[in-house]
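[retry 2/3] MATE family efflux transporter: previous attempt timed out, resubmitting with same input.
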Amino acid sequence: MGESAGSARRVLGLALPALGVLVAEPIYLLFDFAVVGRLGALPLAGLAVGGLILTIVSTQLTFLSYGTTSRSARLHGAGDYRAAVAEGVQASWLALGIGAVIVVVMQILAAPITDVIAGGHDIAGQAQSWLRIGLFGAPLILVTMAGNGWMRGVQNTVRPFVFVVAGLVLSAVLCPVLVHGLLGAPHLGLEGSAVANVCGQVVAAVLFISALVHERADLGPRVGVMRAQLLLGRDLIARSLAFQACFLSATAVASRFGAASVAAHQLVLQLWNFVSLTLDALAIAAQSLVGAALGAGRIDPAKSLAWQITRWSTVFAAALAVAFAAGYVVVPGVFTTDAAVVDQTHVAWWYFVAIIPIGGVAFALDGVLLGAGDAAFLRTATLGAAIVGFLPLIWLSLVFDWGLAGIWAGLTTFMVLRMVAVAARTASGRWAVPGSDIQIRNAER
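[retry 2/3] MATE family efflux transporter: success.
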């Protein structure tokens, strides 16, 4: 990995553009939240539920980004650039195929799903109207994931930044125009937010596909490669399901406490999403560099880098926690003027601040283990933390009427258990298996 200073330059060279990609979308979502928030608590709650469902559906396929990065990074580290790019082609085929299925199935299930999550009241109607439009962006979101995945694997994080920002800028321009009927545009209300989202997703997806065409790669589908990606994806999907079960349950319980509670919960959750993706910038650098080092058979530099990035991530997370603690009064008012929503936001705030440093450790080590292809362990650890730490507290919160305090206490417990698990695994060194084939992990299970 070179000298310490050289490693620092390489890490930051990957992390800073990746940070731009990661924070651009949650910044836009917070902007979207602020635009829709001016319509009132009910549309805001509808956006919260509809956006959560689309996020849950699309982020189950995170193997298209994280799994593709792991496979591409190993091949890139072994000196096979064309094979690394080919991983992106096959991941994009999977993205388009799975995305099309999601659109059809979720259009059929949109009504019952929104009713279940929102508790069958007026929030469900608002959420469904947003979701039916937003679902058309699902294949585009997945193509963008795949594009980010292979480009990170070959250690190019600048172009994904440009592509993602181009799409989000268009969405940001269209969102207030369509939601509030500015500049002579039709006043679409909440649905305008969904239309703006899809338009921006079209731009980003087209740019990522164009990048593959520019590489002059073989663009035909290869069943063998896609099957291998799905095998790795199996564990990553199970891990994502554990995350989403937590967040879905939290929103479902918050909805039972009223529109103000679910809107406040989603506001704080979006801020947490912003923080976690910000911290993921260093984790992505770790994933790419650790994968490449192991692909080249360089175990000791991979281990050294793992702890180096964890230290940096912990310090960065502590600084973010201090900043949000200082913003206790000011920040919620930026996104909504509804007094009831602001009051409920304050209930969850200190839990949110407390889990930021915990996430600094957990996310960095997630990146290390993902780069090593240690997806089976991450699956088991995340499922265990959800079953033992989160789900009991979340449903007790409903039974005993603990409100957002109980919900966020459960999320905090979940993150603590995950941090302990990944730290112990990294310290054991069992993840550091050399070789260019990510499937080598299967032999170690």
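[retry 2/3] MATE family efflux transporter: Confidence is low (pLDDT under 50) at residues 1-6, 440-445.
[retry 2/3] clearing retry counter.
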